[in-house]
Design a protein that fits this description.
The complex is a heterodimer of chains A (about 290) and B (about 160). By secondary structure, chain A is mostly helical. In chain A, helix 7 packs antiparallel against helix 8, helix 7 crosses helix 13 and helix 12 packs across helix 13. The longest helix of chain A is centred in the middle third of the chain and has 23 residues. In chain B, about 50% of the residues are buried. Chain B has a single domain, classed as 2-Layer Sandwich (60s Ribosomal Protein L30, Chain: A). Chain B is α+β, with helices and mostly antiparallel strands. The longest helix of chain B is centred in the C-terminal third of the chain and has 15 residues. In chain B, the strands form two sheets. In chain B, strands 1-3-8-9-10 form a five-stranded mixed sheet, with no helix packed on it. Chain B has a five-stranded mixed sheet with strand order 2-5-4-6-7, with helices on one face. Chain B is globular and about 45 Å long. Chains A and B meet through helix 9, helix 13, helix 15 and helix 16 of A and strand 3 of B.
């Protein structure tokens, strides 16, 4: 292991200013939506405080993926027509794009690829949750899908300098790319991502999604289901080549996650086959 | 690069010199057919092997490849001057082998070979299998194919 790299990563984590930032409004909205007593008005007021975000949110409300057909011209109307959870997901899209829509060196992702990957995983995770009778958590699967790889934005520079070593470790030890990241650098992109989610004051369930998306069975028991959903969505999107980088498919498709969701082979294949249509719907989000 | 044409998942296109066609592959297969006389090329990015019936033809090897070749013939390409290069068809590094999902890469390659054989179009180069993601650039100037995988680049010149 490269101790100097491990130390540099450690210092980034401790000095949270070096981790990506997000406006406070995002965690406020996420936590408000989880509160059963929250008033629509309160949420709308909170969003409206930020003019720039509001304009962007209204545009997204009227996009092909989110629109319910009726023109939405205010946040109040958006909450009434789309619902609080949907508006929360739109807030997440509007605010995280600047963090994720970057060139990710090391992982060899051109500008836009990691963002496209996050959006694809979000949409597919939401679809899986809905089809597997987990509709109540579909919006959380969506948010988790968007941000699950945020750790890559921080780790990329270190992956760039150690890439050959990580890949050699994968083949020599027959371990996944993310496990090899840990062997070579002392940290993997899931752990860094978890620190980002903590900095952003995101709830525990979102921290778990980011932390365990490659190893769903290690997630806390009450998060295993949702982490499994994002794990499968992530695997399917990578197989379809959406946001696949230098780490390729050097990952695991966890069979226990498939069993937990009682997904049949034919259902998995159908989800995979539907990815191109899902991406068409997302065109104006990307 | 002004001449760059990105092909998305389950899409196909035909273009001519000096266009460079690009796609990014996981378990999908990228089929690059080149007509060396006219310097016209076609690329298909297929997701699955067999079309169950009336589904989007561009998504499946057995329907996308005939469609691609028809489009090339329409542009005046001659079948005897066509050759193919194929790339992709990767699999998850770790998986339980009984899931059909895990074998999609392999099945895609097999269905691609069969569909090209039906048109007697020879495959002159293959960069397939393993667990790497691939970015492929198909240069219609001379039909060469650049494959970037796991940080390395390879170029296949044969047409």
């Amino acid at each position: 292991m490269h101790e100097h790299i491990q130390q540099r990563i450690q210092s980034i984590i401790q000095n949270v200013e070096q981790l990506p930032s997000l406006p406070d409004v995002v965690s406020k909205i996420i936590n408000m939506v989880n509160d059963p007593d929250v008033s629509f008005k309160h949420v709308a007021d909170e969003i409206a405080k930020d003019q720039a975000i509001t304009a962007n949110i209204l545009k997204l409300c009227n996009s092909a993926y989110f629109s319910k057909g009726k023109e939405i011209s205010s946040i109040d109307r958006a909450i009434v027509i789309l619902g609080l959870k949907e508006v929360k997901d739109i807030v997440v899209i509007a605010t995280t794009k600047s963090v994720l829509n970057k060139v990710i060196v090391g992982y060899d992702l051109a500008r836009g690829e990691l963002w496209k990957h996050g959006v694809a995983v979000a949409m597919l995770a939401k679809k899986i949750a809905t089809e597997c009778n987990q509709k109540a958590i579909a919006d959380i699967a969506f948010t988790g899908g968007i941000i699950h790889d945020v750790g890559k934005t921080v780790l990329a520079l270190f992956v760039q300098s150690t890439f050959k070593e990580i890949l050699n470790t994968v083949t020599e030890k027959s371990i996944t790319f993310q496990e090899a990241e840990k062997v070579v650098m002392g940290f993997d992109h899931q752990q860094i991502g978890e620190q980002v989610a903590i900095k952003w004051k995101f709830p525990k369930v979102l921290q778990s999604i980011v932390r365990y998306h490659h190893e769903p069975m290690n997630a806390p028991d009450d998060h295993k289901m949702i982490v499994s959903i994002v794990h499968i969505a992530n695997t399917l999107c990578l197989m379809a080549g959406i946001g696949i980088g230098s780490d390729g498919l050097y990952h695991e498709l966890n069979y226990d996650a498939i069993k937990l969701l009682s997904l049949k082979d034919s259902e998995l294949e159908k989800l995979f086959a539907d990815i191109p249509e899902l991406m068409m719907k997302a065109k104006d989000i990307l | 690069m002004d001449n760059l044409l990105n092909i998305g998942v389950a899409q196909l296109a035909v273009a001519e010199n000096p266009v460079i066609m690009r796609t990014i592959l996981g378990s999908c297969v990228g089929i690059c057919v080149y007509e060396r006389n006219k310097k016209i090329g076609g690329m298909a990015h297929i997701l699955l092997p067999k079309n169950p019936g009336n589904a989007n033809p561009e998504k499946y090897a057995d329907t996308a490849i005939p469609m691609l070749i028809q489009q090339m013939l329409k542009k005046g390409c001659k079948r005897e001057f066509m050759t193919a290069k194929i790339a992709g068809g990767a699999s998850m590094f770790k998986f339980k082998s009984t899931t059909t999902l895990a074998n999609i890469g392999e099945n895609n390659v097999e269905a691609t070979r069969q569909a090209l054989a039906k048109f007697s179009i020879p495959i002159v180069a293959e960069d397939i299998g393993g667990s790497a993601g691939r970015i492929i650039d198909f240069f219609l100037e001379d039909g060469r194919l650049k494959v970037k995988a796991s940080g390395d680049e390879k170029i296949y010149y044969k047409v």
